[in-house]
């Protein structure tokens, strides 16, 4: 559905000799025209989004830089060190979570105008682009197409259908999807909110590592792989000489320059091919990252990924926060806060997510 509206420059003046009632003055006509135009554009946007099956969102407020912030230079200098690059996936199922995540980052950033978002999407890109643009009119962003052919034949079934979606593997291809001038990026899942200044995470020192993330060394590492994996020495020896710790791939700081130079995309793909043949794990895109990076990760404070708030992958039971300070809340696991809130069966911590929910709920009444 395309609507084209044009106005002739010769029609803006009203001749008093016309038969139009004298009570309709020039500014009245201008108001009528403007109102009609806005109404038509609104109808067009709502109809287009409804056709795509997208939820509707309220417009977020404009967040501006503080006086101490350097002037943003994107898109003329995409490698400007003052620009914070964040990557997130966009799809209809998790769009509400993605919107809340973006909103939370902007609200707590000291220099929100220096934040650039790289969104990765497979389908409905035009509608998703419009949704971001109308919800965040001042946002610096680009929507990248993720070609599902990149993972065709490489994905095997896991314990949850959501983990099998091609877009769940897009993080493996970040180095190829974003411009080569982008040297560092933060990857965020679509079920988290940030409650601290994103610049603190952006500026951590990765030292000689390619990837930084909060590590959890108390977790039983063997549970992330099948008995088949541990029974084949060629595979299990992969971890020899490495102090392997679990880390969650929903929050990662990545040195893209080193990633590209060392060919980490190909290394991850190789383990995906092995998985197709030998069935060595059950958890989607996470185990390949553990196989390639565990024991070679720059540890980040746990405050930057209070994960597991969605509960376990089977029942999605409520969980509490881990001890310590909090900079990021992550509803990884089966239960998502927007679904539990809508079903009137929220977990206690879901109330921390709801202030960032820009979802436009259906009105209870229609005032006629």
UniProtKB/TrEMBL annotation:
Location in or out of the cell: Endomembrane system
Sample GO molecular function, one term: glycosyltransferase activity
Pathway in which this enzyme or protein is active: Glycan metabolism; pectin biosynthesis
Gene3D superfamilies: Spore Coat Polysaccharide Biosynthesis Protein SpsA, Chain A
Topological type in the membrane: Single-pass type II membrane protein
Keyword annotations: Glycoprotein, Glycosyltransferase, Membrane, Signal-anchor, Transferase, Transmembrane, Transmembrane helix
Gene Ontology cellular component list: endomembrane system
N-terminal signal peptide: none
Membrane-crossing residue ranges in chain numbering: 29-48
Principal location listed in the UniProt entry: membrane
Broad enzyme group: transferase
EC number: 2.4.1.-
Pfam families: Glyco_transf_8 (PF01501)
Family according to the record: Belongs to the glycosyltransferase 8 family.
Protein name: Hexosyltransferase
UniProt organism field: Ilex paraguariensis
């Amino acid at each position: 559905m395309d609507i084209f509206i044009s106005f002739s420059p010769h029609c803006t003046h009203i001749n008093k000799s016309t038969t139009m009632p004298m009570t309709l003055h020039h500014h009245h006509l201008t108001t009528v025209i403007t109102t009609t135009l806005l109404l038509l554009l609104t109808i067009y946007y709502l109809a287009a989004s409804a056709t795509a099956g997208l939820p509707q969102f309220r417009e977020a407020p404009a967040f501006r830089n503080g006086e101490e912030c350097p002037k943003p230079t994107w898109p003329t200098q995409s490698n400007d060190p003052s620009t914070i690059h964040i990557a997130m996936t966009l799809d209809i199922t998790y769009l509400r979570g993605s919107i809340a995540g973006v909103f939370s980052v902007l609200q707590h950033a000291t220099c929100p105008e220096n934040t650039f978002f790289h969104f990765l999407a497979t389908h409905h890109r035009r509608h998703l682009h419009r949704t971001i643009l109308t919800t965040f009119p001042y946002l610096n962003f680009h929507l990248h197409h993720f070609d599902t052919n990149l993972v065709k034949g490489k994905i095997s079934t896991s314990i949850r259908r959501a983990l099998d979606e091609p877009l769940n593997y897009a993080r493996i291809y970040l180095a190829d999807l974003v411009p080569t001038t982008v040297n560092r990026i933060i990857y965020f899942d679509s079920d988290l909110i940030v409650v601290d200044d994103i610049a603190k995470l952006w500026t951590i020192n990765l030292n000689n590592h390619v990837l930084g993330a909060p590590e959890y060394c108390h977790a039983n590492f063997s549970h992330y792989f099948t008995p088949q994996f541990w029974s084949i020495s060629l595979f299990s020896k992969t971890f020899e000489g490495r102090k392997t710790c679990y880390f969650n791939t929903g929050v990662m700081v990545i040195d893209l320059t080193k990633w590209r130079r060392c060919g980490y995309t190909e290394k991850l793909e190789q383990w995906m091919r092995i998985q197709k043949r030998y069935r060595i794990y059950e958890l989607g895109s996470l185990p390949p990252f553990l196989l390639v990076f565990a024991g070679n990760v720059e540890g980040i404070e746990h405050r930057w990924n209070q994960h597991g708030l969605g509960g376990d992958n089977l029942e999605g039971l409520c969980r509490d926060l881990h001890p310590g300070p909090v900079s990021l809340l992550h509803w990884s696991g089966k239960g998502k806060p927007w679904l539990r809130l809508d079903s009137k069966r929220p977990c206690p911590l879901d109330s921390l997510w709801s202030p960032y929910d820009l979802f436009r709920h259906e009105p209870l009444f229609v005032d006629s």
